[in-house]
Amino acid sequence: TTKYILTVVSRDGCTAKGEIMVKVYSDIHVPNAFTPNGDGKNDVFYVLGGPQGSMIKNFSIYDRWGEMVFGVHDVLPGDISSGWNGSFSGMPALGGTYVYMITLTLAGGEQQIYKGTIVLLR
Known about the structure:
Mean pLDDT: 93
Low-confidence stretches: none
Distance between the termini: 42 Å
Helix content: under 10%
Number of strands: 9
Number of helices: 0
């Protein structure tokens, strides 16, 4: 995010000034399904992309009964090592639909919340 200020001076010495705030934004991408079967493709559910300088403050996943099955804090978006591998308490989680909640903190301190569902396919 950058603030641009333009100052124009005429030949007669008259001055005009204007400013604009440009917010640089790169949306995150969250898949809607993953297949943690060990084939090396879509084995981990994680946040893809994200604005430069942003941080995932909280990334939580809940089962259909509202029990948290995965959670991490203060991780970078796009880091596969901070994603969910489809296990819960050391065992493979059941296939089905799960709910996620992501709190993203932007470089300027503003927070954005993303909510949705993910399907775990076995």
